[in-house]
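Support reply, case 0932

Customer input (verbatim):
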Amino acid sequence: MTTRLKPITETSWLVIGDTEEIRIGLLTEIRDRYVLMAAGKKQQFLNRKEVNKYFAEDVFSNTIEATDTPVSKDYYINGYPVDFDCPNEVVLKGNPLPLFSKKLSSDVYYCAGHYCINFPKNWMPGYCPKLSTLEAYGYTGPYKTDVEMRAALTKHRKEKK
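Our regenerated output:
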């Protein structure tokens, strides 16, 4: 069996078997050591030589180029950013929030943009949270940028104390 690495970041790779459908695990470099997470187990290696010995081949010279990864586009609902590719805009009568679903047939709705969510212990940031979360805990927003939301979050936290 040929084992290949597909880069995710500069220090982490998807470990793939003979075909891209056979995913073995995740290999990560942490402080010049390597950790393999596969089949629910964690395996640690001191260096690349140990990783190659484990796979019985030089996996670092057998990488798949990440050029086939689709280019991420920015999506917006009513001017608010969305963290999901190809969101389906949803309009609920009486609800002014910028809503979307991840599937056309879904009845789970998410809110585009940044929010301050009033959890019992503290105000917390939220990016594209579920509508049910906002309704359950209370919120302020939406905000178009993280900076706007963080400013409001600081104000809310001071008021709560």
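We compared this against your earlier run and they match. Two observations from our side: Residues 75-160 form one domain. The helical segments are 48-55, 131-137, 146-160. Please reopen the case if you see a mismatch on your end.
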